[in-house]
Amino acid sequence: MMAHRLMPPPTRQSDRVRTLRLQVRGFLTDQRDAGAFVPRVDSWGDGWDESFSRALADQGWVGMTIPTEYDGGGRSFGDRFAVTEELLAAGAPVSAHWVADRQIAPSLLKFGTDHQKQTFLPEIAAGRQYWAIGMSEPGSGSDLASVRTKATRAEGGWRLSGTKVWTSGAHRAHYMFVLARSAPLDPARRHDGLSQFIVALDSPGLTVSPILNIAGTHHFNEVLLDEVFVPDEMVLGDLGAGWHQVTSELGYERSGPERFLSSLVLLRAALNEVGDGTLEPDPRLGAAFARIHGLHHMSASVAQTLESGADADTPAAIVKLLGTRLEGDIVDVVDELTGPELRGPSTYSQLLRSGVLARPGFTIRGGTTEILRGVVTRGMGLR
Question: Residues in domain Acyl-CoA dehydrogenase/oxidase N-terminal (predicted)?
Answer without folding.
Answer: 18-127
